Amino acid sequence: MEARHLRYALTLAEHAHFGRAAGALGIAQPPLSKQIADLEREVGARLFDRTRQGVFPTAAGVAFLSRARRALDEIAAASVDAARAARGETGQLRLGFIASALLEPLPDVLGRFGRERPDVRLELHEMATRRSTPALVAGELDVAIGLGRPGGVGAEQLVSVPIGHDHLVAVVSSTHPYAGQASVDVDQLRRQPLIVAPGEDEPAVVTMLRTLLGKDSPALSGATVARDIHTIIGLAACGVGVGLGPSRMLTAPRRGTWFCEVTPRTPLPDLVLSFSARDRSPTLNAFLDVIRKNCPEVGAALDHRLGPLGPREEGDRDAPPT
């Protein structure tokens, strides 16, 4: 039994006449009569009474047509659902991110993605870079935003592009002696209690701070460890010390705080977007499209790595990323 048999039966019931039904279907009457007869044999019951007044469903036919109508509706809905899934309009996207990405670019990117793909279910996981890379390799995440290019086992399977550049800045309470200064230098930082992010979460940043302040710097060894940049800003506002973090913090001004540049200017690891080179998920493609729209420079880097149409076609499955 095929979908066309269901359509033939429903059309015949609607027109109550083989000739008119055949005309509506765009086929000749004899083939329609044969198809209906074949359908009745397959069902094992007479579905239509042929009378002088017309062709009308039997009791078995009424029951059959009710189900047939629902079946065709489901087939049509299945086609619509498949097309939407293929366009990345449904499904899920699992995103891992570090907290500072919530300053930029995630607010604009996630806002636009939600508006353009309201039926895609977002699973958002805040996690350190050291955790997001293994999660990507294991297939537990679809995309991740972390600090620096992924490393470790399986990292060669990932496509990674920078989506933000940062340098070190300091934040202090508005009552702190450094408030009002455009910048602070390294010697000044060594003389102050510091507030930093945990080293086990973002070791690249801590390594950079040790290089800047000295491996055995008392200020660094005695620093207050904050969970993320939002806590760094909050503790600085409370007068706990000088908070050190990425320049993205400048996008989150808080009353009672003051931001200073750190001299010499100290670059921090890039904010990096990563995903599996083998992932052809339509929802991932849709997310990358939003990245392209919101971040033109990132879009150019993605196009360089993947081509302007997104991840490689099936025939290129085993080709390594460029």
How would you characterize this protein structure?
This protein is an alpha/beta fold. The protein folds into two domains: 3-86, Winged helix-like DNA-binding domain superfamily/Winged helix DNA-binding domain (Arc Repressor Mutant, subunit A); 92-314, 3-Layer(aba) Sandwich (D-Maltodextrin-Binding Protein, domain 2). Helix content is 43%, strand content 23%. The protein contains twelve helices and twelve strands. It has helices spanning 3-15, 18-25, 29-43, 59-86, 106-116, 129-137, 186-190, 203-213, 218-221, 229-237, 282-294, 296-306, and strands at residues 48-51, 54-57, 91-97, 120-126, 143-147, 158-173, 183-185, 194-196, 224-225, 242-246, 257-263, 267-276. The strands form two sheets. Strands 3, 4, 5, 6, 7, 8, 9, 10, 11 and 12 form a ten-stranded mixed β-sheet that branches. It has a two-stranded antiparallel ribbon with strand order 1-2. It starts with a helix and ends in a 16-residue tail after the last helix.
Question: How large is the count of helical segments?
Answer: 12
The structural domain count equals: 2
Give the fraction of residues assigned to helices: 40-55%
What would CATH call the class of the largest domain?
Answer: Alpha Beta
Radius of gyration, in Å, reads 32 Å
Protein name: LysR family transcriptional regulator
Index terms:
D-Maltodextrin-Binding Protein, domain 2; 10-stranded mixed sheet; 23% strand; 12 helices; two-stranded antiparallel sheet; alpha/beta; 2 domains; Arc Repressor Mutant, subunit A; 322 residues
